[in-house]
Amino acid sequence: MKTTITGGAGFIGSHLTDYLLAEGDEVTVLDDLSTGSLDNLAEALDSESFSFIEGSVLDQEAVRRAVAGADRVFHLAAAVGVQLIVEQPLQSLRTNIHGTENVLNAALAEDAVLVLASTSEVYGKNASDSLDEEADRILGSALKSRWTYAGAKGIDEAFAHAYWSELGLKVAIVRLFNTVGPRQTGRYGMVVPNLVGQALAGAPLTVFGDGLQSRCFSYVGDVVPALVRLSGQESAFGQAFNLGGAQEVSILELAERIVERTGSDSSITLVPYEQAYAPGYEDMRRRVPNNSKANGLIGFVPGTNVDRIIDLVAEDLRQRGSLEARLMGKPGALAPLAAAG
Ligand SMILES: NC(=O)c1ccc[n+]([C@@H]2O[C@H](COP(=O)([O-])OP(=O)(O)OC[C@H]3O[C@@H](n4cnc5c(N)ncnc54)[C@H](O)[C@@H]3O)[C@@H](O)[C@H]2O)c1
Fold first, then answer.
1. For the chain, what is the mean pLDDT?
2. N or C: which end of the chain has fewer CB within 10 A?
3. Nearest CA to ligand 1 atom 18
4. SS3 per residue for 113-139
């Protein structure tokens, strides 16, 4: 099978690339290397079944070239994470809206199956016990750039749905909930690599607010096979699927577990939101997925627990020479977001 992955040099995309090459696919990655890296594709670059195109999803010609002849496309390229979006709202909006429309058009022209990466951020501040795919979206003001990631991804979903219903595009939407694992960078505020990096460096773990905000982290190794299985399900087209973790954990508890699992001497410091962000920053207290729809269709079970995820991320950071870990541990370096992705 011929597969194109936009954003394939990124965290999730590179794991997907490795997985599909191992399955025998021919894989083409389109990535502008803005937050991704060729280091993530070190194994793939050795494969004859792999091609890399450096370019932007904003470039229609590059997208057409990357998608030409593809049987399926995974659209993962995006400006990711709340911190990046707050810092670069205009470019992020363009990438996440216009870039997605370019990919939708190219997939339609090739009659390829498309899997579109959306996010649990679309649920905004809805803190209900078990968010299913029909749950209401509760977002702050459209003028607060913090919400533009959720806004743009919501538009992407609406675009995808309209391409399916009006034009017959074979597209499935996945809403990823705080996906974590090796290769995720802490540079843009992702909480797990940042806290693990701080623990490995012996620096204080910086937790925002009271630390009682909670998340359900899912492991990239559980999510990637689910993306692939969904691409093969006709009944998934025109639908959205949550893919989240099963274990709710507060960020404070996460930090405590990280200290314990890494055997670190680090302390944990609570940092008020006002110090970490501009005044008026809004976070959500909790976000808990209901995975039953994906479980029912493709048997999705997020089997990797938080302790195991911490061990895998710590091992990865140690193996990478802990350079990033040491940088993140430095006073004044980026502090972690309590909720990113
Ligand atoms: N990691 C999470 O927790 C999470 C949660 C929800 C949704 N998602 C979604 O999953 C997808 C992958 O996220 P990730 O965590 O791997 O992040 P990532 O930043 O590692 O990957 C994004 C990739 O897209 C590339 N990219 C960015 N702008 C581009 C452009 N204009 N043209 C081409 N490539 C471009 C980057 O270089 C990077 O390689 C994104 O669509 C993201 O919104 C991730």
1. 92
2. N
3. 10
4. EEEEEEEHHHHECCCCCCECCCCCCEC
Euclidean distance between CA atoms 132 and 122, whole angstroms: 12
**Which ligand 1 atom minimizes the distance to the CA of 56?**
32
What distance in angstroms lies between residue 289's CA and the mean position of ligand 1's atoms? 20
Phi and psi torsions of 220, nearest 5°: -55, -35
Residues acting as catalytic residues: 149
**pTM of the predicted structure, to 2 decimals:** 0.94
Give the model's pLDDT for residue 186.
84
Instruction: Look at ligand 1, atom 23, and give the residue with the nearest C-alpha.
Output: 7
Q: With cut-offs at 50, 70 and 90, classify the pLDDT of residue 327.
A: low
Phi/psi for 246 (5° steps) reads: -100, -15
- Taking the CA of residue 9 as reference, the ligand 1 atom at the shortest distance is 39
**DSSP 3-state of 53:** strand
pLDDT digits (tens, 9 = 90+) for 54-77: 999 999 999 999 999 999 999 999
Quote the CA–CA distance of 341 and 339 in Å, as a whole number: 7
Backbone angles phi, psi at 73, to 5 degrees: -130, 135
> What is the per-residue pLDDT for 137?
96
**Residue range 7-18, pLDDT digits in tens:** 999 999 999 999
pLDDT per position as a tens digit, 292-315: 999 999 999 999 999 999 999 999
Give exposure, 121-130, as e/b (b: 16+ Cβ within 10 Å): bbbbbbeeee
Q: State if residue 174 touches ligand 1 by the CB under 6 angstroms criterion.
A: no
Q: Is 12 in the pocket of ligand 1 (CB under 6 A)?
A: yes
Is there an atom of ligand 1 within 6 Å of 181 CB?
A: no
* Pocket flag, ligand 1, residue 224 (CB < 6 Å): no
Determine if ligand 1 sits within 6 Å of the CB of residue 117. yes
The total of other beta-carbon atoms located within 10 Å of residue 46's CB is 9
pLDDT reported for residue 279: 66
**Domains within the chain, CATH numbers bracketed:** 2-178+217-243 (3.40.50.720), 184-216+246-286+303-329 (3.90.25.10)
